[in-house]
Amino acid sequence: MKGKANNPDTTPPTVTVRKPEFLPSRDTPKLRATWLGHACYYVEFPSGLRVLFDPVFEARCGPCCGPYHLGPKRYTEPPCQIKDIPVIDAVVISHNHYDHLSYPTVSEIAKRHPNCHFFAPLGNKSWFHSSGIENVTELDWWDERDIAMSPKEGKDPQVEPVGEASATADIKARISCLPCQHVTARSPFDKYKTLWASWAIESGGSKVYFAGYDKLPKSTSECCFANLHSSDSGYRAVDELPEGEDDWDPKYNFPICPAFEQVGEFRGPFDLGLIPIGAYAPRHIFSAAHSDPHDAVRIFKDTKCKKALGMHWGTWVLTEEDVLEPPKKLKEALKKHDIAETGVFDVCDIGESREF
Hints:
Layout: E1 32-35, E2 41-44, E3 50-53, E4 64-65, E5 68-69, E6 90-92, H1 103-112, E7 117-121, H2 125-130, E8 136-139, E9 144-150, E10 155-160, E11 171-178, E12 198-203, E13 206-210, H3 220-229, H4 259-267, E14 270-276, H5 283-286, H6 293-302, E15 305-311, H7 325-336, E16 345-346, E17 353-355
Parallel strand pairs: 3-6, 6-7, 7-8, 13-14, 14-15, 15-16
Antiparallel strand pairs: 1-2, 1-17, 2-3, 4-5, 9-10, 9-11, 11-12, 12-13
């Protein structure tokens, strides 16, 4: 409401940050995910594959202007540096906003891990090439590629059409670019010039869904347009309501994005979902771009995830909710859906690893 803007308090302590413990080798008995802040997860698959999602390690998320780096400043430190991550086989980017795609970060990854392959939605390859990164594959929604690699033999990741990758490779994976709804831009002049996406990766008998961050449509027509063309993740767009009103009250019938049910139907179920829960207030402004925890639980159910971890919170102040509100609201949402408040859809410390 007008005149009631909230300025979130970032005075420590806020989110606990711990030093991550990565596995010393590719031997991975279980699927393992480590939250590195905001939307960045490092996932160690049982096959030995190592994937980094939406990495941004800078103090600010914004453009670099000469010696200056613009944008919001972190209120929690990165739990590690890129040099601390032992192996990165693939980097997956959901969309090109500065809190999900960082030139300094991807440049350092490419230098330290020259065999790493980058995956991004349609229209982003030219940006990577102009940044000096050649190992990049851009995909449209519902496109899939197979990854094959044999590290013991020194064979780098090979990205091939489905069914054409080496059957004898030590590590095999399938990556899927999936629909979601959001907006892209790195300047005032390139809005909607590139695609945004959610992603699925299956390897070693484990399947992970990365929701990125999705936008919710204001109308059915906009939703249909997005389905024809489309990852911050919204679930539905909410109008401005009187204070204290529940936007999920049955008397409100805001349109719901169908993409998540489609993902669940055609690519699910998933062993693990990495789902955004933050940057949602005020709802009437940000629901069209970001899901709140109640939306996140519905995304979890629609996409048929067995377990999930929250993300897109705890790092930068991007909106007006209190910095520690998302995990509290997540527990409320889980309870409302008769889902256990812990052990199913959890939040973790920055730098913490969970096994599945």
